[in-house]
């Protein structure tokens, strides 16, 4: 009986530690986003505590979200550049209706088997110009695309490679790789 209590205590300690770490991280993010303005501390406190609690509930400690330092350093500039490019692309298309639109729902089959990485890709594919992750089913992500199937699939593949690097995962070799054919 004592061991069960010790395990429960260890889990609650990990939960508290995870909550505190996320609370600090979300507080720093809040301060960064508001420029350090503490004019509305109650709104900030509510947002930060809610975000930390929700993140602990949705992504418990040890859920697989482990980013490598080198992968993070390589992913952040890619993320920022693609976010700017994607925003610029959509703004340009809104201001210039003559630009081509190829709306369609594109199926993209993942090479990665890690579910956490797949979720991350589905959530972030919208930073690519003209794309938005619409649905994830098993090993397939459905991407709403304004730029056509080929561009959406190429962008999703590049994102998958970058996320594999971010998470420190190996991508499986494509079929026929190394055969010299």
Strand order of the largest sheet: 1-3-2
* Oligomer class: single chain
Number of helices: 5
What's the story with the biggest beta sheet? 3 strands, antiparallel
N-to-C span = 62 Å
Overall residue-averaged pLDDT value: 83
Order of helices and strands: HHHEHEEH
Helix/strand-derived class? mainly alpha
SS elements, strand count: 3
How many domains make up the coordinates? 2
Shape: globular
Question: Helical amount among residues, as a percent range?
Answer: 55-70%
The radius of gyration computed from the alpha-carbon positions, rounded to a whole number of angstroms, is: 20 Å
Kindly estimate the percentage of residues that lie in beta strands according to DSSP: 5-15%
Q: Give the low-confidence spans.
A: 4-9, 176-181
Give a quick precis of the structure.
This protein has 181 residues and is mostly helical. It has 5 helices and 3 strands. Helix 1 crosses helix 2, helix 3 runs antiparallel to helix 5 and helix 4 packs across helix 5.
How would you describe the overall organization of this protein?
With 181 residues, the chain is mainly alpha-helical. The protein folds into two domains: 2-58, no CATH class; 69-167, no CATH class. It is 59% helix and 10% strand. The chain contains five helices and three strands, in the order αααβαββα. A three-stranded antiparallel β-sheet has the order 1-3-2, with helices on one face. α4 (115-124) packs across α5 (149-167). It starts with a helix and ends in a 14-residue tail after the last helix.
């Amino acid at each position: 009986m004592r061991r069960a209590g010790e395990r429960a205590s260890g889990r609650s300690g990990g939960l508290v530690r995870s909550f505190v770490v996320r609370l600090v991280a979300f507080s720093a993010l809040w301060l960064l986003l508001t420029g350090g303005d503490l004019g509305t501390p109650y709104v900030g406190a509510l947002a930060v505590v809610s975000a930390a609690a929700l993140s602990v509930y949705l992504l418990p400690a040890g859920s697989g979200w482990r980013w490598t330092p080198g992968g993070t350093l390589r992913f952040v500039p890619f993320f920022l550049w693609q976010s700017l490019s994607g925003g610029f692309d959509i703004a340009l298309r809104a201001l210039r209706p003559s630009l081509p639109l190829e709306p369609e729902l594109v199926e993209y089959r993942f090479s990665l088997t890690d579910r956490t990485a797949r979720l991350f890709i589905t959530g972030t594919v919208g930073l690519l110009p003209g794309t938005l992750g619409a649905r994830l089913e098993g090993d397939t992500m459905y991407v709403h695309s304004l730029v056509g199937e080929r561009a959406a699939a190429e962008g999703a593949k590049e994102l998958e490679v970058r996320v594999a690097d971010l998470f420190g995962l190996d991508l499986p070799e494509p079929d026929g790789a190394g055969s010299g054919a």
